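Morning!

As promised:
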Amino acid sequence: MTDSTQLDPIQQGIDNLVKANDVVLFMKGTPEFPQCGFSQRVATILSHTSVPYAAVNVLLDSAVREGIKTYADWPTIPQLYIKGEFIGGCDIISEMATNGELETLLAPLRPTQES
Amino acid sequence: MNHDSSDNTIPKPEQLAELVRRHIPDAQVEVGLFSGDDHFEMRVTSAAFEGKSRVAQHKMVYAALGDHMRQRVHALALTTSAPQ
């Protein structure tokens, strides 16, 4: 029943990850080998945007798996962060992919092709 | 891992709908199972969602579901909207 999340090193570590990467997906498994259908759906959506993203496999560390729920005050995984801001889970990202909002957020982050 | 005394039975879809209606009084709730007995899908419409971001809307539903969301609901596919 501890409630000292402010100074928790896990919270600090998650915060560092979220701020160090423009696009971060906390998921179960990896984009190549997702371990959950919801994580797979978001990873697939992101991969199709061709915007690079950092994927964090929460199954590797139970402290991160629980800590990320506290961090966003959001009870489920996957969780997508863009430019340090929590954007949503699978349902919200799927909706934003369909209605174009995700593209609006990601377009400025897409690397320019030099060929 | 969970050492609280609450029971660990999986809630029925209607129990979840009732929790949402209790916390969001005008909510129209449709709930069902999309797989197994702990993968729920839910559609909630409420005037309380007006002007709120989708993240905020979903958080309101998660708050209504309370511990169910953290412990016994394996998956919840959630759609929220304000009435048209």
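Chain B has one domain: 13-81.

Hope this helps with the figure draft.
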